[in-house]
Amino acid sequence: MRKMLFFLLGFIPLTSFTQLKIKPVIQLFQSLHSKIITESTVGVGFNIPFNTGGVSLLFQYQYGGNWKSSVKHQIVDMYTLDYHLLGGEIKYRLFDQSSFYSPTLSIALSTEIHSNYKGGYLDSHGILERGYSFRPTNVAQDGELGGPTVGNNKWYSYYYISTPLISSFSIGNEFRVIEGLYVNLDIGISFRSIKVGYKEWHKSDPEPEPNYIPISTENDRIMMFDLELGLRYVFSLGK
Fold it and tell me: What's the superkingdom here (predicted)?
């Protein structure tokens, strides 16, 4: 009797999802975050259609990094600060898939799995609120210009450790190109939780290696505005 009960409890949701005609979906996005960071995203998952609208559940891989810029009168190449992310997204489409246009709502979470810039300099300056900005730079900061430890005979630098969490919310516009293929233009806001370290050394001494200990027990949080452009394809598995 107990085995039959477990069977029924598992079978009922399975048949319900089958009736919903779940379809595989893939999406490709390029994002710009506050003119500082850009990210390329590949997402795969499933689309669950309703009578009106539908929900997509996606697993995502992202590769991101900085734009090319000039910091302290030196050129910093694109993707000097780079990172790889894994995460997931829930996207809700208000109108059904056959509609030419539909608003969308998206919530996403991701975490860093690797960065080639771990231990790399962040733009540091005593006049900045945090002492640094979330931009890579090629040089350490001269203590003559001020900072946490002001001294003419010292160098100092904040450095990047990792991005444990990125959470984002976006509102989008989705346009149907042909059956199954859609173009998306989204705007949103994201919050990045980052770990940052700090080191200083006398100018006559060799620069120490980073110890990767964050300057605070609480991760710094950075808010960014997001602009995303992408393609989404919902596969048809039969009528």
Answer: Bacteria
